[in-house]
C-alpha cells in the first residue's frame, strides 16, 4: 500500500480513541485536540521513553519542571517580545489571514487571490494578566511560555549548585508550550497548545561542535529505536538565512509528514531540531555582560549565570546544545509509520497498526473464546489480572473472536491471548502475533515470562 496521509490517520484516530476534536459538542476549536484512551497511552509512552533515554540511561542529565507563566522580563531579554513573530498577511478579497512564508506562489490559501497586504510581524506569544489588577496595567501583563527552554536557562545556577555538576551536563524538561499560530492545521502537526521534550546541554566553548554532532547522531538513532522509520526520516542542515539569531548551527530531523504532495521537498517537515545556541541565553539573562559601549546587556537580572572551572580557574559562559522535539509530532510520525493494511483469507482488508512494542498503548489483550462460559471468562480475567502488574493488559469480550482480533490490530496491540475450551483442560492459551497473525500455544504458568521475552529490548546494532 502507499504511504498513508494525515487524513487517513485522522479517521483512524477518531474511530479507535486516539485523538478527538476538542470541544466537539460545541463545534470544536481550531487546532485543538484531545487525546483519547488509546492516544494518551501512546502519548505517555513517547514521553516516558524520551525521559528514560535522556535522564535515566545517562549520568550527565538532570530533570526540571519550570513554570508555564514566567516573569515578563524573561521574554524581554530572551528576545521573544521583539523577534518571536511570523510574517502575517491579510487577503483583501476574502479577509482571511495567512503566514506569508507558507503561501504557495503568493496566493491566498482560501480564495486564491493575490490581492494581499504587505507582510507585518505577528507575535506568537499568548498574552494574559496576573493578579487582581486592571488588564490595561502593563505591570500585570505576562505570557504563556512559547518554549520550555528559557525555564531551564534561568534555573541554570539553581541546578548547578544543588546537583554539584561539572561541565558538560544537561537539564531536561517536558512541558506544555503555547504559540498563537497564524495558520495552524494538519491535525496534531501544528497546534497552538503542544508539549515539548527539550534538553539544554551545557559545554565548554570550543567543545560545542563535537557535542553538537554527537547529539545529532544520538537523537537520530533514538527515533529509530522507538519505531520511526529511517525511510521517512532525514537530517536537514539549516542554511544560514534560516538560522535563529542565537544559533551557530542547527540541524533538523525531518519526517515525511506529507507523502501525498507531488514535490519531494514539500513532503518533509521538522520532527526535531538540534541547535547550537552558543552562549547567547546564559549571557542575556546575566547581570554582568556588557555591550560594545560598556553598558550592561541586562540591567534587571540579579544573577551572573557564568560558570567557574575549578581546573583552569577560569570563569566563562557555557555554550548550549539543544535537542528539542514535540510530543504531538512524534505521535503523528509513529502513527503514520505504523499504519498498514492486510487482506485476510476472506478477502477483507484489515488495518494493522504496527507500532513498536514499547509504544503500543496496550501490550496484551486477553480474550475469552466464549463469553457465556463462566469457567472460560473467569480464567481469562484471572490471566489478565496476573499480567497487569508487568504489562499493560486488558480483557475484552465485546464481540466474536475475529472482530476482537481486528480491533486489537487497529490499536496496535502486539499480542492477543485467547482462552478456549481446551484451556480448561491443558492450562494453556493461544498467543496471537499482531504483525504475522501466527499463533502458538503457551502454558499459562509460562505466559508472563514468554510475553516479557517478546518485549525485551533489541540488542544495539
Please specify the SSE layout and strand pairing.
Blueprint: H1 6-15, E1 19-21, E2 33-35, H2 37-56, E3 61-63, H3 72-78, H4 80-83, E4 85-90, E5 97-99, E6 120-123, E7 127-129, E8 141-143, H5 149-153, H6 156-163, E9 169-178, E10 193-203, H7 208-225, E11 233-237, E12 249-255, E13 269-278, H8 280-284, E14 307-309, E15 314-316, E16 319-326, H9 327-338, E17 339-343, E18 349-353, E19 364-368, H10 374-387, E20 393-395, H11 401-411, E21 415-419, H12 423-426, E22 428-433, E23 439-443, H13 444-454
Parallel strand pairs: 3-9, 19-20, 19-21
Antiparallel strand pairs: 1-2, 4-5, 4-6, 7-8, 9-10, 10-16, 11-12, 12-13, 13-16, 14-15, 17-18, 21-22, 22-23
Helix pairs in contact: 2-9
Sequence stretches where pLDDT stays below 50 over 5 or more residues:
none
CATH hierarchy: architecture of the largest domain = 2-Layer Sandwich
Shape: globular
CATH superfamily of the largest domain: Bira Bifunctional Protein, Domain 2
Structural class: alpha+beta
Mean pLDDT: 92
Distance from N terminus to C terminus (CA atoms, Å) equals 29 Å
CATH class call of the largest domain: Alpha Beta
Beta strand count? 23
Amino acid at each position: 500500500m502507499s504511504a498513508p496521509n494525515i487524513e487517513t490517520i485522522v479517521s483512524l484516530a477518531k474511530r479507535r480513541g486516539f485523538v478527538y476534536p476538542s470541544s466537539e459538542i460545541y463545534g470544536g476549536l481550531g487546532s485543538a485536540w484531545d487525546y483519547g484512551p488509546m492516544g494518551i497511552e501512546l502519548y505517555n509512552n513517547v514521553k516516558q521513553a524520551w525521559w528514560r533515554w535522556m535522564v535515566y540511561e545517562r549520568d550527565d542529565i538532570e530533570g526540571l519542571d519550570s513554570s508555564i507563566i514566567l516573569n515578563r522580563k524573561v521574554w524581554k531579554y530572551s528576545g521573544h517580545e521583539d523577534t518571536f513573530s511570523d510574517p502575517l498577511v491579510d487577503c483583501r478579497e476574502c479577509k482571511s489571514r495567512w503566514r506569508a512564508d507558507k503561501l504557495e506562489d503568493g496566493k491566498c490559501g482560501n480564495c486564491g487571490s493575490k490581492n494581499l497586504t504587505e507582510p507585518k510581524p505577528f507575535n506568537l506569544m499568548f498574552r494574559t494578566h496576573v493578579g487582581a489588577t486592571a488588564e490595561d496595567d502593563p505591570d500585570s501583563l505576562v505570557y504563556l511560555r512559547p518554549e520550555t527552554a528559557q525555564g531551564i536557562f534561568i534555573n541554570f545556577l539553581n541546578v548547578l549548585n544543588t546537583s554539584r555538576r561539572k561541565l558538560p551536563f544537561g537539564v531536561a524538561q517536558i512541558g506544555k508550550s503555547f504559540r498563537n499560530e497564524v495558520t495552524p492545521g494538519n491535525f496534531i502537526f501544528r497546534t497552538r497548545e503542544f508539549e515539548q521534550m527539550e534538553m539544554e546541554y551545557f559545554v565548554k566553548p570550543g567543545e560545542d561542535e563535537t557535542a553538537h554532532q554527537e547529539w545529532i547522531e544520538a537523537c537520530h538513532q533514538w527515533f529509530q529505536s522507538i519505531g520511526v522509520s529511517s525511510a521517512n526520516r532525514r537530517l536537514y542542515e539549516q542554511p544560514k538565512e534560516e538560522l535563529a539569531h542565537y544559533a551557530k548551527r542547527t540541524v533538523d530531523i525531518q519526517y515525511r509528514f506529507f507523502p501525498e504532495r507531488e514535490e519531494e521537498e514539500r513532503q518533509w517537515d521538522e520532527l526535531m531540531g538540534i541547535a547550537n545556541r552558543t552562549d547567547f541565553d546564559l549571557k542575556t539573562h546575566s547581570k554582568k555582560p556588557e555591550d560594545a559601549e560598556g553598558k550592561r546587556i541586562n540591567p534587571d537580572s540579579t544573577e551572573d549565570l557564568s560558570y567557574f572551572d575549578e581546573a583552569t580557574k577560569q570563569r566563562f559562559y557555557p555554550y548550549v546544545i539543544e535537542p528539542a522535539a514535540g510530543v504531538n509530532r512524534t505521535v503523528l510520525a509513529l502513527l503514520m509509520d505504523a499504519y498498514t493494511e492486510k487482506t485476510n483469507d476472506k478477502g477483507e482488508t484489515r488495518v494493522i497498526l504496527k507500532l513498536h512494542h514499547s509504544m503500543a498503548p496496550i501490550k496484551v489483550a486477553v480474550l475469552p473464546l466464549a463469553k457465556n462460559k463462566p469457567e472460560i471468562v473467569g480464567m481469562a480475567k484471572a490471566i489478565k489480572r496476573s499480567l497487569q502488574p508487568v504489562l499493560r493488559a486488558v480483557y475484552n469480550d465485546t464481540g466474536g473472536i475475529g472482530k476482537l482480533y481486528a480491533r486489537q490490530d487497529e490499536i496496535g496491540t502486539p499480542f492477543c491471548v485467547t482462552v478456549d475450551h481446551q484451556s480448561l483442560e491443558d492450562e494453556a492459551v493461544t498467543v496471537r502475533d499482531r504483525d504475522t497473525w501466527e499463533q502458538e500455544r503457551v502454558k499459562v504458568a509460562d505466559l508472563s515470562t514468554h510475553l516479557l521475552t517478546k518485549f525485551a529490548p533489541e540488542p544495539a546494532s
